[in-house]
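notes to self, project folder thing:

trying the whole complex as one job this time. last attempt i did each chain seperately and stitching them together was a nightmare. two parts in total, labels are on each line so i dont mix them up again. if this works i'll redo the older ones the same way
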Amino acid sequence: MSHPHRIESGGLVDRSVPLAFRFDGRGFTGFMGDTLASALLANGVKLVGRSFKYHRPRGLLTAGPEEPNGLVELRTGAYREPNTRATTVEIYSGLEAFSQNRWPSLEWDILSVNDLFAPLLTAGFYYKTFMWPASFWERVYEPLIRRAAGLGRASALTDPDKYEKMHSFCDVLIVGGGPAGLAAAMAAARSGARIILCEDDFRLGGRLLSEKCTVAELDGAIWAARSEAELAAMPGVTILKRTTVFGAYDGGVFGAIERLADHLAVPPARQSRQRYWKIRTRHVIFATGAIERPLVFGGNDRPGVMTASAVRTYIRRYAVAPGECAAVFTTTDDGWRTVDDLFSSGVEVAAVIDPRASVHPSLVAAGHRCGATVMLGAQVIGTRGRRSLDRITVRESSGKMTSFDVDLLAVSGGWNPQFALTTHLGTKARWSPQIFASVPGDLPRSMTVAGAAGGNFGLAGCLSEGTKAGSQAAQLTGTREQVAVIAPSADDEPCGLSPLWRVQDGHGKAFIDFQNDVTSNDIEIAVREGYRSVEHVKRYTTLGMATDQGKTSNANGNALSAELTQRSMADVGSTSLRPPYSPVAIGALANEHRGTCFAPMRLTAGHDWAAEHGAVFLDVGNWRRAQYFPIAGETSWVQAMEREVRTVRSAVGVCDVSTLGKIDIQGPGAAELLDLVYTNVFSTLPIGRVRYGLMLAEDGFVMDDGATARFAAHRYLMSTTTMNAALVMRHLDYCRQVLRPDLDVQITSVTEQWAQYSIAGPRSRDLLQSLFGDSFDFSNESFPYMAAAEVRFGEFTARIFRLSFSGELSYEVAVPAAFGDSLIRAIETAGAPFGIAPYGLEALGTMRLEKGHIGGAELNGRTTAPDLGLGRLVSAKKDCIGRILASRPGLTDPDRPVLVGLQSAVPGNPFLSGALLLMKDQEVQPPGEGYVTSAGFSPTLDRWIGLGLLRRGASRSGQMLRAYDPVRNSDTEVEVCSAHFFDPEGARLRV
Amino acid sequence: MLELTRRPAVKSDFLRASAQVQIEVVIEAQILSIAARKNCAETLSLRIQDAVGIALPAGPRCSTTGAITLLGVGPEVWLAIQEDASARLWLPSDAIFELASVVDLTSAYTSFRLRGTQVQQVLAGGTFIDLDGMHSPADIAIVTNLSHFPAIVWRVQRDPSAFDLLVPRSVAADVWRWLEERAADCGANALRAHQEDA
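result (full assembly):
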């Protein structure tokens, strides 16, 4: 097992567990505990990707989640996942990873030719090009741009993984498991607080795992492991590793993604791939650390140029030497720490270049001790190397140019505190001239920042701040014991710096945003073209708009904007940071809500019976309703629908109407409430009768309709349409709680309580009389049209209504839903001698069309009572909700479209709902004269009929129009007629 | 004479059982909605106490005596639940009817009982309510959503490790599937009624 760049000893990898993986088809091995990035470096792989725009060769810049270059595709087929950061991918046996954004191979990428055309592809080039010839846009430019744009390839297959969601609560949420986070967690937990500690990494410790340091007289990594063990044993402590907190929301709510199985080849059976956590906390401590800034100089994107902290991470945590001969280019004391780590791991250190004129003598001495050439007041101005670094050029303080042949350049430009989560709720960052970085602004009392996230970069300071934050958070949340918690001891290293925002007059492109290929030149262009706001510069140049959201680039870009516009960093400010902090899989957000679990599935009590009878179901809202019941020999829904309609018109049919909304209204104020919400009067409705009612919204438009029965002086039962049941319930609650709190009325939704069936057709009375026997008299004299009754049968009560939507003699029978299945089977048995057939929504819809009843298409929120021919239902004797606004000029305009009937001029010629209504010789010009709201073939009339909303429709009966439907390519001549096609006198339903 | 038989929304012969999670359908729960008439809540509570031995709880809480549980589910609205299959449903007297709208919702809901060491984990997958016994009231009763299902959840007073769940009848089968899935995630395997794997 040969890892040419693996250091012989040390590191936090398990050398006893070798793992084989593949990158771009080549086989490699790594160790348990390696990331894909560290394993590739251990194998000497430096070229890991191509840049977005110029397709320049790119290597790893960092060792953490901020990585802008090392984006790879993981896995294959349906499991393929693009844009995954190699620096965060734990390797496992059988891992397959692929570089992306290159063709045909990573080494030979055709589109690297873009680099030659770089002068044409600068910031905003797409706003200035592709203008001519205009005809090229759709045929040439757009297809080319679409082909070139985008990063990575999403799998087009259904995601086979499982995702889950979990809600959790705590007193203190600690984000980040580095020294400050661990100290905070220990302090808060020891004080008795219920805590959740989230860490993005698969190991707690943060920089303790990457630095040579001592905490409480222990090696930093060992102290972290012991702290974790102690925390895990404490009650009320939840440790979530591999968990990224991606967003902060109102009410102390945080979103987090836990990667449960991303480090496994395939999740075990029933194991979710990721878990979406919704955490509500009383206090949050952000111990999210800081990210090292790269330096901006010519050729700074060449593979082999890496942040100094990343170099130390690869050496100390992964026992990987990222190069053989290195130089360090640093503006910080911290960068100098890399020299010793490089030297100790056997890497030759050729030079340490620091633009500062002087640094602490101990740093210089350390450099000399390692055999490095120390160059103060110097800057790297260029790099060389075809696919990886082989030489750097340094401009000394004297102006003299010196070159060093190195394959690794560690760069350090200072640290940017990571406090993005603190800004999600609107808190603005502020500039700190002490640390030359933005720090969190004034935070709410429920938020604390500790350690490097707040700009404290020293280890002792981090531990001290973390401890203090944990203790205080526990106290603020009112928890328990006042425990004196002492911060663990540690030595602080010097961390002075002097910022260098860019190297002037360098050789080659100086990249600021590595992922989006934004150079210092692009920022200059944006400023030259008048962009001043960092938000505008961002959008013009795409700075910080890639998947890494500018974690390594925003500060440098903003600093350059400040320099170019001669403003201070405080004046320039920073762009807004919004959730998510890092990319989140859509599948994780959707979690279980997909496929059949996308929405709740509501089943009626008669569902199983309908399924047994071959029903084809349709989702109506969340309800699953029978659309039609095909029988042997029927090959289309039309055949089934026509048979069902004919059965109802000639014999008897049964339809499940349990889904209609049902609201119990009781109390002395019930009648008054109904008079308020309905346009017509219900206080005069006799007990044992039903009345059709029309309900307006406050804006005067029709909101819903339905029948309401009165069972006692102060007890009504309202029915609503299926789709508006919840809306009407809310409306009634609003009316009684807000508009008329003086009314003594109580409302209860009883939709779920009742299973209800419509039995319609000339034999319906015979059927029900047979079913009920002597217990109820269904004769016209005893139970006339629009009657209602309650009948007690042993342990249940049945409700019977004489209503009709079909236009036939018809009844509705309701029983408690527990008896609903039994009732439909009883109806079927009793109806057999009368030729009963079940009918579904298609037949129901056709029959209501034949009768001219309005449905959901007409109750569209834009129609008034007069529009629907129901103006007579608006009582002049009383007020009702919506009455005043219904009389607005716009709603009483005689030109408004009103409901009309439509029939095809040639009976067999179809027309469909949605078609525009045009004059016969009119050009197609929406909105035309109106449109068809509902249409279908009537088996009763043997022709196509429909309803439509037609301008001045009331006076246009007999007129011939076009029903023009460009979407479905039909153009049919139709005649305007009465909407009441069948039995307009209603004789059949009163027999 | 119409003769009908009762059928539950979820087949009752299935039980998911393990030490981690046990879920059963409480078939015989009978449920009344009681909404107080205007300015009558206090008197109503006293009369309920006279009738069943416990007062109506104030706010989102539950009170239990014998087989009757009273849940606060809205402003001056309660559910009375009687789960004793052998007993007849407590029927309010006229003294109650004159102070409240009383509606039978026995068929409107399906009742589940969840027990086991992982019950809170199962529920935490669906509801954003802190059910930790250390941090929520012992008599907590919540009208909430479980995943995307409307639900009423409360702690069983005579068995604090158990929770009862009421869901609308129409979604009961879907809730059952969801509970099965979540229970399996917590280690319970599908078993026939009254078998246990622990």
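what i see at first glance: Chain A is about 20% helix and 25% strand.
need to look closer tmrw
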